[in-house]
Amino acid sequence: MLKEMKSDIYHLMHPKMAFFLTSIAKDGKPNVMACAWATPVSEEPPIVVVCVSKESYTVELIRQTKEFVINIPTKKLLKALWICGKTSGRDTDKFKKAGLKYSKAKSVKSPVIDECIGHIECKLWKAVDAGECYAFFGKVISAYADDKYMKKGLWSQKAEIPLHLGGSRIVYFK
Predict the structure, then answer these.
(1) Structural contact between residues 71 and 22, judged by C-beta atoms closer than 8 angstroms
(2) Cβ count near 58 (within 10 Å)
(3) Distance between CA atoms of 131 and 98, rounded to whole angstroms?
(4) pLDDT tens digits along 145-171
(5) pLDDT at 129
(6) Which residues of the chain are modeled with pLDDT < 50?
(7) Cis bond leading into 30, ω under 30°?
(8) Domains of the chain
């Protein structure tokens, strides 16, 4: 029997890849948050969309600098994902608190997370008001992955990328 979903409708579309979304302030201060709401929306040209709560510090930074980076972790970074998902970057250096290192990206000012196995660097193409979130459409400027985990254009199972089920539940394929 099918049950009517009155709330948490988005769970019907989970699991979603959990990732780090990095941004940067105009003064050069980097920021990171955990996120799971993203998807490609076009292959030619390559465009992705990430959805971020309007109340987040990340929204302010993306609106200011017009760029962001999707950083793809492995299960080894699960603790750091939780830290970055439960802490605001307004007053806290989340990189330090989560024990993450970052480097200069190839094409944008927002940093990449060194421990991650893939990165998608984006320039903001369009921002859409989407309820409690903004949907940020990013033109992919540069994308690259560790060839140890990416085979023939697909993630291998040994990548063990965290998949968010909802709430505090995470799974990964082995």
Answers:
(1) yes
(2) 23
(3) 30
(4) 999 999 899 999 899 999 998 888 888
(5) 97
(6) none
(7) no
(8) 10-171 (2.30.110.10)
The DSSP line for the chain is: -PPP--S-GGGGG--EE-EEEEEE-TTS-EEEEEE--EEEEEETTEEEEEEEETTSHHHHHHHHH-EEEEEE--GGGHHHHHHHHHS-TTTS-HHHHHT--EE--SSSSS-EETT-SEEEEEEEEEEEEETTEEEEEEEEEEEEE-TTTEETTEE-GGG---EEEETTEEE---
Q: How far apart are CA 32 and CA 126, in angstroms?
A: 21
Per-residue model confidence (pLDDT) at position 9: 80
Write out the two tokens for 4. Answer: 């009517």
Structure tokens at 121: 């660097």
Residue found under tokens 């094409």: 107
Answer for the pair 8, 50: CB distance below 8 angstroms, yes or no: no
Instruction: State the pLDDT at residue 87.
Output: 87
Q: What is the pLDDT of residue 174?
A: 64
For tokens 């994902």, the residue is 81
Contact 110, 58 (CB under 8 A): no
